[in-house]
Amino acid sequence: MAVAETVVEILLNGLQQGAIFALLGIGLTIILGTMKFLNLAHGALYLVGGYAGMYFIRETTLSTGLLADSGVTDIGLGLGFAAAMVLVPVVGFVVGLVMEHYVAEPFYDRPETEQLLVTFGLALIVQEVIKGVVGGNTFQPAAPREILGISVGGPVTLPIVGSYPQWRLYLVVIALFVIGLTYLLIERTDFGLVVQAGTQDSEMVRMLGIKINRSYSLVFALGAALAAFAGLIGVSFQTISPQIGTEQALIPAFLVLVVGGAGSVLGAIVGGFVLGITVVTMTVVASQWAQIVLYAVAALVLLTRPEGLFGSAEVGE
Amino acid sequence: MSDDREPDGGAVVGRRDVALPERVRALANHEFAVVVASAVALLLFPYLLIDGLGMVADAIGYRIGGYEGLPSLVLIYGIIVIGFNLLLGYTGLLSFGHAAFFGTAAYSAGLLSSTAQVTVPGIGATVGMPGIGSPILMALFGTGLATLLAWPIGFLSIRRSGVYFAVLTLTFGQMLYFFAIGPGGWLTGGDNGYSEVNVGELLGMADFGSPLPLVGTVEYAFIGLLFLLALTVANRIVNSPYGLIFKALGENEQRVEFVGLNVFRYKLMAFIISGAFAGLGGALFVMHERFVHPATGFYWIQSGDFVIMTVLGGTGSLVGPVFGALLFEYISNVISGVTLPVVGPIGSLWRLILGAAFVVIVWVFPRGIYGALADAVRWIVDAVRFVVWAARNPDEFVALVRETAAGYRRSLMARFGGGS
């Protein structure tokens, strides 16, 4: 019983972590695949989503930072999770559009190294601005108690595991739903077709008379919205502080990207769940080695299958 | 317009004026001259940074002066970024994992000097550390181990390029970080950091911290000498046929391959050399700070800092990155302590300032501060030459102005129609 209990719990927790990784990975992979643009500020979008989500969901008391210094100590709208689920992706989408226009576009034709560098700088700026405005404190997770009248808080009794936080089950369902939706958008719609074609040969798409630049902006904004949504999911069961943008979002997203294969949405989904379950399993088995194994898995895939699990060719070579 | 004229004007100005820069340039290519000039600069550097800026600080009322120890720190990071630039600036490989070599050297040099007892987990045996505190041996040991580590990491990472290379180097660095902070805690001290560093006397006669007339301290002299050595070695590499191939790799890898050279081997060598430089820096860092923590030793932020320093300073030249290291350490250690009238204390905002400066540099001056300065100097020299030429040939100058104005009017007419 004890083993079965552990396995199921690992699977459940792994699905949550994997969903976040997958959401981040999808955003990064479609941006890289379509525009050949490497976005080291992807973690910053996660961070923006997480903080925005927290303030939409609940009121938060600030103790340090510019706002607290100027007398504003209680911020937050307290709209609840349902509203945040709509608003956070919108915020991410808008931030993505702005970022695409003002940061990414001037760098599309510049060397890959310069793209990495400028977005690295941007990631630093976003992180420091957030730290400066709302302080560098770690905030507790903002788990909702009810969504649209349905109670989602408190524990629930599961067959094998026993008592388990009910919210976390909803979370898996919501995340899987969004991932599925994105998958369908890319695989089954005309827009997705253009995006996929752009991944293969953007010049050819342009020759066919399709305004791929408009699709570029949309893809970038979509990727940003997904990253922000991942941030919202993250903040609903994990603590949040300014440095998690790189630690818990950017680096895993890149690992997902290289494991799944650049430009492949399916690869990002599978890669996300593989890495998510790996890290949760290792946390249970030997927690000190969890992160080491995570990186080792990524390095192993990179060395043995450079195109990733689902990629067709190396992008950005 | 002026471009067409200027060479003529320059020749007319007289050969005496041209001869001097030529001689300076020839001198700059001479290794001995470079070393002597750098040595003089290193001697003056602490006075400028501490006393010079200190006087400015007294004058304007903000505490912007350097402190004792900062010059050493700048030189340590200078050594690292000179090596890092060989990889990034010359061969064009962006590594996000050089903290691996920095940290390995820092820990191994520290462990070499320690006398503490260490219990090896698994076997349960207790081992005493050697307690060799000679700075020279510590530097050699740390650099050696870092170089040995750079070989396999480079061997694996070089197989991929671009973002894949960056991610691979990052993963190796991060693995070491999580090892040092977790399972390797018995050796590294884990999250408490490692402070059992006993730096002995240099050559058995000079205490490391004792003052030295003119130079400051024995430590600064030691670090300064190694900085000169690193600069000389890097200068030799860059100016050798071998270094030329590094440069060629950065320009066009495919062509180098077509010529029949083994690209992999040259890239690997560039990686190992830069790893050795990072190692030397790490060993000196632990001697300077007497403390190392996994976050300062191995964490990817440290690798990112190397990238920032190098790019800030300028990747196009040998010494450019050193200016980046200077600016970085100055902002992080001195400017962060300044209190501004409206904003208040800068404190942790220094990273924001740095990030903004970094983005501006990448965006506007891809060749870094050094490149921007070099451009500015060239522009001023050209401007001065032009003024001299204009003063000596007023008639030609007036004709040139007229011609330019006429050309400008013509282009305006062509664009907006000649009606007005």
Features:
heterodimer, A: mainly alpha, ABC transporter involved in vitamin B12 uptake, BtuC, two-stranded antiparallel sheet, B: 420 residues, mainly alpha, two-stranded antiparallel ribbon, 72% helix, globular, disordered N terminus
Task: Report on this structure.
The complex is a heterodimer of chains A (317) and B (420). By secondary structure, chain A is mainly alpha-helical. Chain A has one domain: ABC transporter involved in vitamin B12 uptake, BtuC (Orthogonal Bundle). Chain A has eleven helices and six strands. Chain A has a two-stranded antiparallel ribbon with strand order 1-2. In chain A, strands 3-4 form a two-stranded antiparallel sheet. In chain A, helix 2 packs across helix 9. Chain A is globular, with a radius of gyration of 19 Å. Chain A starts with a helix and ends in a 13-residue tail after the last helix. Chain B has 420 residues and is mostly helical. Chain B has a domain of 243 residues. The longest helix of chain B has 30 residues. Chain B is globular and about 90 Å long.
